[in-house]
């Protein structure tokens, strides 16, 4: 009798002679056909990765190029501005912070950018990532909708963040940079950068939002295991941190504050550059491996999404999944609804203004036109630091203004209710960030139950929640509350954004 393995929720005959474990060889690597004997691929670091090579020529492969949505937009996004001259930023203005190749990518209008072989070698540790049909969740919700999720939690750091951490560190290493610095909120980005630095031999220093630093000791230990130095932010190590502590010694911190601290250190040290885990164009560019793989995976199973849903904080995960689909939408090949979901306590897209603002609290970064709550806005410490950035990626903000996507905000108790339903049906415990997308997916699926529509819903499951269990404990014990969004607090923060003449 033939054995079976689960691929996207469907049984697929598996050859008894195959030595590939079904979870590794098929579902978890995102392939769609029986596999031959796995081969070993040698990494540039000397490590060896197992990669099952499918006999089916249509088996999904890791993309060899990143996709740049800007190339396909008739209306280009507004450029970042120098904070003193208010003129468009030049490459030399960014040189103290980023290596040359990343600056080129940040400003590029090329449609596709080749992924270096050394980066692909590392990607092969976990890519391609699986596209999984949530049949058990569909059954629980009694919906005719077909729900798929692209799962990025199989990376070594447990989220989508290594997709950009690896190339960022590699480009810095190629330029001879010895150290990189960054900020992290929930800890996913800091973990990913520490992981990448451990592979390429760079020093790594992380400023972690104080609320997250205190609530997530294991994220901090994860970074330290990979060799990073981790500081709570605001810290007394930088002028930006000391200024905040003087005003509020018990400040819970924010991503804007942590960015200020990291940027300050990078600007003062010639052998040190700054890495950012979201928001900027080159970061969103690197994440498009998610959507490029997903397009091929859905094509292989004969499905086309009617609705695409992703969580948004700074926007990298959402952009990574949605931008390749937006390309196909612009080309008239598909016409899905594309929906961004954010927390009601930090709703930059749905409550912010579209204006030029600083990317950090201290005002050290270029001015970016984005949906913002004001660079002084310090959100309540929701979700142990997840999705707490005051602004939205400028390119996502631009796409939103062009009408190619929509946005909504959801309170945290509904998000965790959805996360519990997902965990108890699909088995995976989501990170707090994708709980927003899961909650919105459940809303859409229940609407389909009412209307009888069998829509195809695609959502981004950008990471697991193994280091976020204190947030689940708070929910399960009935201690989680929905934090209100203060319009007064927002207006006070917006009063301090710079005035840029139209």
TrEMBL record:
Top-level EC class: lyase
Entry keyword set: Amino-acid biosynthesis, Aromatic amino acid biosynthesis, Lyase, Pyridoxal phosphate, Tryptophan biosynthesis
Xref: NCBIfam families: PRK12391.1, trpB_rel
Family as reported in the entry's similarity comment: Belongs to the TrpB family.
GO cellular component, one term: cytoplasm
Reported cofactor(s): pyridoxal 5'-phosphate
Pfam families on file: PALP
Region (Disordered): 1-21
Enzyme Commission number(s) from the entry: 4.2.1.20
Annotated function: The beta subunit is responsible for the synthesis of L-tryptophan from indole and L-serine.
InterPro entries registered for this protein in UniProt: Trp_synth_b-like, Trp_synth_b_CS, Trp_synth_beta, Trp_synth_beta/beta-like, TrpB-like_PALP, TrpB-like_PALP_sf
One Gene Ontology term of the molecular function aspect: pyridoxal phosphate binding
UniProt cross-references to PROSITE patterns, sorted A to Z: TRP_SYNTHASE_BETA (PS00168)
Protein name in the entry: tryptophan synthase
Subunit structure: Tetramer of two alpha and two beta chains.
Catalytic activity: (1S,2R)-1-C-(indol-3-yl)glycerol 3-phosphate + L-serine = D-glyceraldehyde 3-phosphate + L-tryptophan + H2O
Domain Tryptophan synthase beta chain-like PALP: from-to ranges: 125-463
Pathway noted in the entry: Amino-acid biosynthesis; L-tryptophan biosynthesis; L-tryptophan from chorismate: step 5/5
């Amino acid at each position: 009798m033939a054995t079976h393995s689960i691929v996207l929720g469907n049984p697929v005959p598996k050859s008894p002679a195959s030595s590939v474990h079904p979870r590794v060889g098929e579902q978890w690597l995102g392939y769609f056909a029986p596999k031959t004997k796995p081969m070993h691929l040698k990494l540039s670091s000397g490590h060896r990765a197992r990669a099952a090579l499918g006999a089916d020529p249509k088996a999904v492969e890791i993309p060899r190029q990143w996709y740049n949505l800007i190339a396909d937009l008739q209306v280009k996004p507004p450029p970042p501005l120098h904070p003193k001259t208010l003129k468009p930023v030049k490459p030399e203005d960014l040189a103290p912070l980023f290596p040359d190749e990343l600056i080129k990518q940040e400003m590029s209008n090329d449609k596709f950018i080749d992924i270096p072989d050394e980066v692909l070698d590392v990607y092969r540790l976990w890519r391609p990532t699986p596209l999984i049909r949530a049949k058990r969740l569909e059954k629980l919700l009694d919906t005719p909708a077909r729900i798929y999720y692209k799962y990025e939690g199989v990376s070594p750091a447990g989220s989508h963040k290594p997709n950009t951490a690896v190339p960022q560190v590699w480009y810095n290493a190629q330029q001879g940079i010895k150290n990189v610095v960054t900020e992290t909120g929930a800890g996913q980005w800091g973990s990913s950068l520490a992981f990448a630095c451990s592979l390429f031999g760079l020093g790594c220093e992380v400023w972690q939002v104080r609320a997250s630093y205190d609530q997530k000791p294991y994220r901090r230990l994860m970074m330290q295991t990979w060799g990073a130095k981790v500081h709570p932010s605001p810290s007394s190590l930088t002028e930006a941190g000391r200024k905040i502590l003087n005003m509020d010694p018990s400040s819970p911190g924010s991503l804007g504050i942590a960015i200020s601290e990291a940027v300050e250190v990078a600007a003062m040290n010639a052998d040190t550059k700054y890495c950012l885990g979201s928001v900027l164009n080159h970061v969103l560019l690197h994440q498009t491996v998610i959507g490029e793989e997903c397009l091929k995976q859905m094509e292989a199973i004969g499905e086309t999404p009617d609705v695409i849903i992703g969580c948004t904080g700074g926007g990298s995960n959402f952009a990574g999944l949605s931008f390749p689909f937006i390309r196909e939408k612009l080309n008239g090949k598909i016409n899905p609804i594309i929906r961004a979901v954010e927390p009601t306590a930090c709703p930059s897209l749905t409550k912010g203004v579209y204006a030029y603002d600083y990317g950090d609290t201290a005002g050290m970064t270029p001015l970016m036109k984005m949906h913002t709550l004001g660079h002084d806005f310090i959100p309540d410490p929701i979700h142990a630091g997840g999705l707490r950035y005051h602004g939205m990626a400028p390119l996502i903000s631009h796409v939103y203004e062009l009408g190619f996507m929509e946005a909504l905000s959801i309170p945290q108790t509904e998000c965790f209710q959805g996360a519990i339903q997902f965990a108890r049906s699909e088995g995976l415990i989501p990170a707090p960030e994708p709980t927003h997308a899961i909650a919105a997916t459940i809303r859409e699926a229940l609407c389909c139950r009412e209307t009888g529509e069998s829509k195809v819903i695609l959502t981004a499951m950008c990471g697991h929640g193994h280091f976020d269990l204190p947030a689940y404990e708070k929910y399960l014990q009935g201690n989680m509350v929905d934090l209100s969004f203060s319009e007064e607090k927002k207006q006070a923060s917006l009063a301090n954004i710079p005035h840029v003449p139209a």
